[in-house]
Design goal:
Blueprint: H1 5-20, H2 23-26, H3 32-38, H4 43-54, H5 61-80
Helix pairs in contact: 3-4, 4-5
Length: about 80
């Protein structure tokens, strides 16, 4: 059975929206990647922003723990300096 072209296009656009504008990021008015890139944040700093931005809309406490892990990396790095 052949798929309807309209259904394929709709599926592709849905997948594209999940990649380019995931629902768990767009509710804040600015996507985390835009904030991260504009402010030149490093990997750990960017991940803190990412996980804090999405925790209520994606993985809950798990994302808060991930953010805390990256904060701990940053704190440890500063204490070593």
């Amino acid at each position: 059975m052949h798929k309807n072209l309209t259904d394929v296009i709709k599926k592709d656009n849905t997948d594209n929206d999940n990649i380019k504008q995931p629902k768990h990021y767009i509710h804040n008015g600015i996507e985390p990647i835009d904030y991260i890139m504009t402010n030149g944040l490093d990997f750990c700093e960017g991940n803190v922003v990412k996980y804090i931005s999405r925790w209520k809309h994606k993985n809950g406490v798990e994302d808060l723990k991930k953010a805390r892990q990256y904060l701990d990396f940053l704190i440890d790095k500063q204490l070593e300096s």
